[in-house]
Each structure stands twice: as structure tokens, then as C-alpha cells.
């Protein structure tokens, strides 16, 4: 796959503050936040999008969800957040390196699921 900005960030080639990191993923603030809290969980493995992940990625995908919960606690938004994965251009994906969005800090009950991320 083609390299992306998230490839450069996860490899440390673009200096970026990591809110959390481990051997499998990093967590950064979104550069154009769509909510008061908007962070991205990015696996170090450059899977282009969820729809091309396979069984080999199962443990990693589970890990990303566990990290999402931990980071939500770390940020104090564990009672009210939304997790979003945009898949494919038509699904609103702009960076083709799989990532999860955590959105919180505004009313998450109104509107469509991907509000603010289209
Ligand atoms: P997507 O639309 O692919 O689901 O989400 C990509 C997200 O990455 C967008 O919310 C966008 O604001 C964010 N983003 C794009 N480039 C950068 C960057 O260089 N740094 C950071 N921190 N976020 C970025």
C-alpha cells in the first residue's frame, strides 16, 4: 500500500505527541477536532482500511478496542464517547491507514452516527 501521513506518524518520522503508545498502536489528537475530545487510535501496522483486514489482524483489532476503552478512561470521557471507523472514500475515509476515532465532549445522542465526521 502507499505510505500515508499516519505511517510517518506511527514510525516517528513526523514528531507528534502520543497520548498513549505501545508496540501495536499509537494514540494522537486529531488535527481538525470534530468534538472537544477527538483522538485517533492508529495501529502501527498499515492496514489500509477495515474491509481489507483479515483473521491475521483479529488480535490487533481487539487490542485497538481495548486501548479505546483505556484511553477514554484516561481522558475522563468513559461515560459518554463514540467510536468511529470510516471505511472507504464513500464512508468518509480520507487517510488510508486504518484508524479509530474517539469523539466526546459534546451531545453525542443527537443526529446521525457519524455526525461531524462526514
Ligand atoms: P478519516 O476521514 O480518514 O476517517 O479520518 C482522518 C482524520 O485524520 C481526520 O479527522 C483528520 O482531521 C485527521 N488528520 C489528517 N491528517 C492529520 C495529521 O497530520 N495529524 C493529525 N493529528 N490528524 C490528521
Compact overview of the structure:
With 118 residues, this protein is α+β, with helices and mostly antiparallel strands.
Q: Architecture in CATH? A: 2-Layer Sandwich
- Uncertain runs with pLDDT below 50, 5 residues or more? none
Q: What small molecules accompany the polymer chains?
A: guanosine-5'-monophosphate
List the strand order in the largest sheet.
1-2-3-5-4
The fraction of residues assigned to DSSP E strands is 15-25%
InterPro entries: Histidine_triad_CS, Histidine_triad_HIT, HIT-like, HIT-like_sf
Protein name: Histidine triad nucleotide-binding protein
Motif (Histidine triad motif): 97-101
Domain HIT: 5-115
Keywords for this structure?
single chain, 118 residues, alpha+beta, 5-stranded antiparallel beta sheet, 2 helices, globular, binds guanosine-5'-monophosphate, Histidine_triad_HIT, Histidine_triad_CS, HIT-like, Histidine triad nucleotide-binding protein
Question: Can you put this structure into words, describing what you see?
Answer:
- The chain is an alpha+beta fold.
- It has a single domain (5-104), classed as HIT-like (HIT family, subunit A, 2-Layer Sandwich), CATH 3.30.428.10.
- The chain has helices spanning 5-10, 58-75; strands at residues 20-21, 25-29, 37-43, 81-84, 100-104.
- A 5-stranded antiparallel beta sheet has the order 1-2-3-5-4, with helices on one face.
- The longest helix is centred in the middle third of the chain and has 18 residues, at 58-75.
- The mean pLDDT is 94.
- The protein binds guanosine-5'-monophosphate.
- Residues 5, 28-32, 40, 86, 92-95 line the site of guanosine-5'-monophosphate.
